[in-house]
Design a protein that fits this description.
Length: 570
């Protein structure tokens, strides 16, 4: 199988995943880079040094490391980051393309789905030897998952350390599914919400009784179709609600590993038919497919949007605004909605240790010091600092247990933007490997602040009331549980390298253009015209070469299963 795979590989952003992170600009000179060496001029591990850094996500609360955690990181490591972000919401695509073309790289890069461009440009150091010699904490945390850092079956170099996922993660809560405001549920007596029809009925009934909200027109349901966000709130939901495992643009057969664009699942057509129905019934926001991201969030923060089909991180800024305004009843409950009860929401299915990560570029003049910094951030000390903050400021230790004081918790929950900017908690999460929720450190405390008791403490009264009405302690209780699904043998496909040469990218872009045009068209057309639009859409995908692309992607998935599991996959 290996000889079927292309020599040049890259990573395409196949599913939306927005992380809170920091980024940076570069003044490095690749011509003088230590490109063939994993050594450097590393002196003391704590003498002052500045690394340039680029992160492929926005980090609007970045405070140039002048927050509490940032100052402490510099004090303990000597490291300061000269950081720049991707502020346009493009996942670093434009900036990283410019880097690859110019050869001008920052020292440390969080490239997300654009890492392939940097690998092809030979911009990244193979971290294998650096980790082996200088990163005991990274090796300890990764444990048996070291092979999941390797780039591909053909190229087993380590170009990035997965930092946006937690090792040994336990899921204690759900933040995805379909969302309905607590005030809606309360007024209607907390009705059952299991299928798209249930979701529709709830919104329809409440909207009929409450056509306005605080003097503005009520919006029963809206989506965010601005750029790649359309994947999160529109297209991915077609797969999720019909029993798919949410593998970006593809559906993977778990038995054969054969893949196809998920839109081709016959049952998925019925989900988009339902969206078409919602639009024609006047329940789906008429401006949903022309509004921008900020307009979408403004509607949510006004409190007049009753329902969403998203995941909390995607709309969290708007929900935080509602919390700050004291409008907890306008925030959202989470339900595992599917097309019908025969399907299960796979939100709790484990993918293993696999995700976007941190890289060190060939422009870095001291890669040893850089890896030692990332290793310190991966230590128990570094993880506790990143997750909890500073003892005596953001938490106290009482009877051996870390406790967040009530006034600090109130700031964290109800004024999160200012809390993050001042404390730095959450700004440094991608700067080292980390244990996931549910893992305890050497003091018998949890590494993260997401554990049952803390989650319950952070719920608003409106959330607690809704959960009690559904006989649940957390939103996870409403979802199919983790043990109902096998761990994904192929990991997180948004992070899988795909060809950057040959026909794959050409076909992929053609199919994306078709999807971005035809899915809205299918949703916004008349009911009588839906079948024709959707059937023509599938035919257009195939005409553009989708079947060739799917066959190539199938081989990549099989190779990834072989890399991760050691199976002889044919």
């Amino acid at each position: 199988m290996k000889d079927k795979l292309p020599k040049k590989m890259g990573v395409a952003l196949l599913a939306g995943l927005l992380l809170v992170s920091a980024g940076c600009s570069n003044s490095g000179d690749s011509s003088s880079a230590n490109s063939n060496s994993t050594e450097g001029n590393s002196g003391s591990d704590t003498e002052p040094i500045t690394f340039t850094f680029f992160g492929a996500d926005a980090s609007p609360n970045w405070n140039k490391m002048q927050d509490d955690v940032g100052k402490e990181i510099t004090a303990r490591t000597g490291v300061t980051l000269n950081a720049e972000f991707d502020v346009g919401g493009g996942g670093g695509q434009e900036k990283i393309a410019m880097m690859a073309a110019s050869g001008d790289y920052p020292d440390i890069i969080f490239a997300k789905g654009e890492i392939g461009k940097l690998v092809d440009a030979e911009a990244l150091i193979d971290l294998t030897d650096l980790i082996d010699k200088h990163a005991p904490n990274i090796k300890k945390v990764m444990g048996d998952n070291m092979n999941r850092m390797k780039y591909s079956l053909d190229n087993q170099a380590i170009y990035s350390i997965p930092t946006n996922v937690g090792v040994d993660e336990q899921k204690f809560d759900a933040t995805n599914g379909f969302q309905i405001q607590h005030r809606v549920l309360k007024e209607l007596g907390y009705p059952e919400v299991r299928t798209v029809k249930d979701f529709e009925n709830v919104l329809k009934e409440y909207y009929a009784k409450n056509p306005t909200t605080d003097g503005q027109p009520t919006i029963p349901f809206t989506v965010n179709a601005d750029g790649w966000k359309s994947m999160i709130t529109v297209t991915n939901q077609g797969d999720i609600t019909t029993g798919g495992a949410n593998d970006g643009e593809y559906y993977v057969d778990p038995e054969t590993y054969e893949t196809k664009l998920h839109y081709k699942k016959p049952e998925e057509k019925e989900y988009f038919r339902w969206l078409n129905h919602m639009y024609n019934e006047g329940l789906l926001d008429k401006d949903a497919f022309v509004q921008k991201d900020d307009q979408y969030k403004a509607k949510i923060s006004s409190g007049r949007v009753l329902g969403l089909t998203s995941v909390e991180w995607e709309y969290q800024d708007a929900e935080n605004a509602l919390k700050t305004a004291g409008k907890d009843e306008y925030t959202y409950a989470h339900f595992p909605v599917t097309l019908s009860e025969e399907y299960k929401d796979h939100a709790m299915q484990a993918v293993g240790v696999d995700g976007y990560g941190i890289s060190i570029s060939t422009s870095c003049k001291d890669p040893v010091r850089a890896i030692k910094f990332l290793d310190w951030m991966s230590s128990e000390e570094g993880q506790v600092l990143r997750n909890w903050g500073i003892e005596g400021k953001q938490y106290n230790v009482e009877n051996g247990k870390r406790v967040i004081p009530a006034e600090i918790l109130d700031q964290k929950v109800n004024d999160n933007a200012n809390f993050t900017k001042q404390t730095g908690i959450g700004l440094y999460s991608i700067l080292g490997v980390r244990y996931g929720d549910g893992v305890k450190d050497s003091t018998d405390n949890y590494y993260t602040t997401n554990f049952p008791e803390q989650i319950l403490a952070e719920y608003s009264e409106a959330e607690k009331e809704s959960l009690a009405a559904y006989n649940a302690k957390t939103w996870k209780d409403l979802f199919p549980q983790e043990d109902e699904f096998p761990v994904k043998e192929w990991g997180a496909l948004y992070n899988m390298p795909v060809p950057t040469d040959g026909s794959y990218q050409v076909i992929y872009q053609k199919t994306q253009d078709i999807i971005q045009k035809r899915i809205p068209e299918a949703i916004l057309t008349s009911k009588d015209n839906f079948d024709k639009v959707y059937d023509d859409f599938i035919a257009e995908l195939n005409k553009a070469g989708a079947e060739e692309m799917e066959a190539e992607y199938t081989e990549l998935v099989k190779a990834r299963v072989a890399l991760f599991t050691g199976k002889d996959v044919q």
